[in-house]
Amino acid sequence: MSTIMTLTLQIRNALLALIVCLAVGLVPALAEDKDDDLRLDDAWEDAIGDQEPVLTEKQFALLNNLAFQAAAAKICDGFKLNPDKFSAGIAEATTPAPKNMSEEDAQAWNAAVLIRFGMSYGLLLAEGNDKPKKFCASATELKTDGEVPNVWQ
């Protein structure tokens, strides 16, 4: 493998690791205040607490980040999804798919991924609409961070 390709892969992997860290930290960061009722902790636990490992932790984090950005586009002024970036983000978050699946298992896996994304999106919509100023401030912080790729226009 050429040095440039190796360097490119290392940079890509480092950026992906950064995105995952930010995505994993972003959603819980909304709950840091002691008096914060923004998080629907029981709903999150019910929604994802006992899920089978449909995706890797990294893939779940990427999907949560996409769900947050999609929710912000609905709730916050000045945020609009870029359909091409969003599609690419979904593709990246769901790749690689598990190997050696039958067609039926692959369809079930795709459905499980969409359900998982939809649950996160719905819960983030609920949280964001409950406290839109705080939610949108978090979105603005993410959007202005030039090192974090986002799927907004």
Structure, described:
- By secondary structure, the protein is mostly helical.
- The protein has one domain.
- Helices cover 69% and strands 0% of the residues.
- The protein contains 6 helices and no strands.
- The protein has helices at 3-29, 41-48, 57-75, 83-93, 103-130, 132-144.
- α3 (57-75) packs antiparallel against α4 (83-93), α3 crosses α6 (132-144) and α5 (103-130) packs across α6 (132-144).
- The radius of gyration is 16 Å and the shape is globular.
Summary?
The protein is an all-alpha fold and 153 residues long. It contains 6 helices and no strands.
Structural features:
mainly alpha, disordered N terminus, 153 residues
Main sheet makeup: none
- In terms of DSSP E residues, the strand content is under 5%
Say how many strands there are. Answer: 0
Give the averaged pLDDT, no decimals.
Answer: 78
Count of individual helical segments: 6
Radius of gyration: 16 Å
User: Which ranges are low-confidence, i.e. pLDDT below 50, for 5 or more consecutive residues?
Assistant: 2-26
Q: What is the helix fraction of residues, given as a range?
A: 55-70%
Terminal CA distance reads: 35 Å
Structural class: mainly alpha
Order of helices and strands: HHHHHH
Q: Count structural domains.
A: 1
